[in-house]
Amino acid sequence: MEVLWQDLRGIHDLKIVSPQKLDILPILRHRYETAATFEPEAGPERVDPGVVLPGCQSVLVAFYQLPRPQWQEMPEGAGRLASVSWGEDYHTILRDSLRMLQERLEAQDPTGEFFLQVDTGPLYERGFAQKTGAGHLGKSGNFIHHRLGSYVALGILCTTLELPLDEEEGHYSCGDCSRCIQACPGGCLHEDGTMIPTSCRSFLSQKKGMLTAKEQEILGDALYGCDICQWVCPKNQGVEEKNAEEDLLHWVRSQDLEGLSNKKFREIYGHRSGAWRGAALWRRNLGYMEEASGPGKINEKC
Ligand code: B12
Fold first, then answer.
1. Distance between CA atoms of 180 and 65, rounded to whole angstroms?
2. Model confidence pLDDT, tens digit, residues 217-233
3. 89 ligand 1 Cβ < 6 A
């Protein structure tokens, strides 16, 4: 099976798991009812591949390693982009590669039907990543791949074709490490595995409307997304380096957005995942930084 995907740019690892549904709908429902952010409504389509693709026989879970952070000094007042938005949009890269894999499978057996999802879709992707056994769900909430680390984006391709399953028997865990919990500026991570994303810096950097003073403090120097819980994670030390992208953008200043029309903004930044919310939100976040231009910077010693 590896021959079908190893040359595809957006797939650094891929596992095939069975279509059995995940048993975490009550947790997804609890979250949706108490602290929803951008997750879809918590129905059976979130946990059951057979709902999104009747007759589903195999679930292919793809892992794309994002550019991995090196500490970047920023000019005063600049806003920091998280690694998920440094390079080309992972949605595009993973979708294109999974689409090509689908075409190769169709060439082998044209009777197959498919459902493809990268981020914006019903399936709870981390749950299927966990099912592969190729890593574990960390206390940060992030799926930590045992070879690629936590800076991995996920993509899912469901199919009615019966493909050889290759779930790993890995037993990975965070043990008693809780660096992410201590470092999270929003205090949204908890030792019992629960996460309250409404005070997550990543969420606040994407949340529309005016932020409260407390939320602005949590936002700190984040223009889009946040890597702090991954930055401090020891599981990201010594991992394989698969992403060789060069054209990386780490931060943006207000003057970079001055006089930019939305059209021009999309031309310049539209190929990066952080631009999905548009220029207005980037200007809002930079405005808060200029007002605050003090606390909230990550302490590189942590
Ligand atoms: C909504 C969303 C967000 C929201 C909410 C995050 C969240 N944890 O739910 C916000 C905007 C905050 C967000 C931020 C980020 N996201 Co996001 N996000 C999603 C999305 C669309 C849905 C996630 C979802 O369904 N959450 C539902 C909750 C319940 O799941 P959960 O928090 O993981 O909860 C689990 C545990 O925490 C625990 N738990 C939680 N609550 C409770 C309560 C109880 C009682 C118990 C027992 C357990 C428990 O059990 C849950 C199930 O295992 C997925 C794509 C998808 N379709 O799945 C991408 C996705 C999870 N995001 C992704 C990424 C990369 C990020 C960021 C790293 C981006 C950045 N650098 O800023 C941050 C990381 C924040 C974090 N530490 O989780 C990747 C994750 C890849 C990976 N390696 O894990 C995904 C898979 C997108 C992709 N296709 O690559 N995201």
1. 20
2. 999 999 999 999 999 99
3. no
